[in-house]
Amino acid sequence: MLSPLTLWAAIAAFAVFGLGLAWRATRENTGTAEDYYLGGRSFGGLVAGLSYAATTYSAFMLVVLTGLTYRGGIGALGFELIYFAGLGLLVIFAPRFWLAAKRWGFISPAEMLGARYGSVWVARAAALVGLIFLMPYCTTQMAGIGLLLSGVTGGEISLFQAVATGALLAAIWTLFAGLRSVAWTDAVQAVVMLVSAALAIGFAVAAIGGWGEFARVSMETQSERLSVPGPGLWSLNTFVALSLPWFFFAISNPQVSQRLFILRDMASMKRMIFWVLGFGLIFTLIAVIWGFAALQLAPGLENTATATPALLISGAIPAPVAVLLILGILAAAVSTLDSIALTLAAMVARDLMTDAQPKAQILTGRIVVIFVILFASLFALQKVQIVDQLAALSAAGLMVTVPAIIGAFFWRRATAAGALASILGGAALAVWMAMIQGVSVFNPVLALSVGGACLVLFVLVSLLTKPKAKALDFATELRADLDKHGAW
């Protein structure tokens, strides 16, 4: 077990460093809503890319994905690579999101949809869906922190203390200076995540006997997990159920699509995509290898979500490296949590409220940030055992915005009524199936039904109604700028 005193000292040092960055960020703020939520749209590719990566590759990776690898084997890599392939959507949609936000001054993705369809109710529906389905994903971050800190200390750091620590860090870093504070701390946290994980996996493999021995033992003792479906988790049904919603993560999740609004120019966007793809591929491989290392160094776990804590206290990882990795996972969770909280704050302040002054938008956003973090903390304390299902449910729920997003840029005939029917109808179906009928997120019927219903509603209702007169025509109005920048 790791000493709680050592962990608290490391967390305190990390927190002080983060607070220094956050305080420095406050000196750059101008007091406008655009500055608070988007950092004045002034970020370069490196910081934006690391912030995007830190927000995306959260505690889910070394808690849930590692646990899924431990439980089901190599199918976890296939699942995550489907998500990685979905990042290719950035090549098509990132220029369009950025150009539209810059031209019309959008601050939230929901606001962009509302303007495209000429309806404030579309914006409100998208914002409401974000609130409903991102809450579970926030919960996974808190639960990951709780499982980790309590696990590596044998319960000496309680679940409550662990969750409270994550909540406090996320709240302070977000409330200080908004997106600028979040992005700067994200960039540092992304580096901590990657370096600590790479060091830890190196020591774990060395403890097994090196890469050759690791591969030999894995093939001899885990041959079933090196095939699909493996021990049974990664059946075709499960794979489809989890992979389909995650493929669209880059455009369906507003906390990451909003990152496309913060860039200062198109060159920065291209560099950002490069950094995100590079970071994502490396971190995915590390998380899966970490799971196979845990099978050898910490076998026989009943709760696979504890694979990372078990490996950290197995004796294979030196204490300083283990502490650094714990900080990395803590950083990943906090990064995702504060990014989601800030995005939800922007959507409430900009889309659910109307005609509010900038100061009122910022104050409202800060209140929402506190509410989101408290809600996620309480839910994590009560539901920590269903951490992986909560994350997957959020992805399936957020998929309801995908037809409206694609149609916004590529189908001039799409209407506000079609977007509303698609978003609200799909959200209602997802809640009914998962929460009332009890359809598991591991059942492809959930994702296929929700996705299919959204698409049918969007197309059918759009064909039966007319676009609003004040609706924007993204396809036509952005074409010249897209051609100018050589975008698809």
From TrEMBL:
The keyword Electron transport does not apply. The keyword Zinc does not apply. It is found in: Cell membrane. Pfam families: SSF. Gene3D superfamilies: Sodium/glucose cotransporter (1.20.1730.10). The chain crosses the membrane at residues 6-23, 43-69, 81-99, 120-137, 157-179, 191-212, 232-251, 272-297, 317-342, 363-384, 390-411, 418-439, 445-464. Keywords: Cell membrane, Ion transport, Membrane, Sodium, Sodium transport, Symport, Transmembrane, Transmembrane helix, Transport. It catalyses: L-proline(in) + Na(+)(in) = L-proline(out) + Na(+)(out). It is a multi-pass membrane protein. Belongs to the sodium:solute symporter (SSF) (TC 2.A.21) family. This is Sodium:solute symporter family protein.
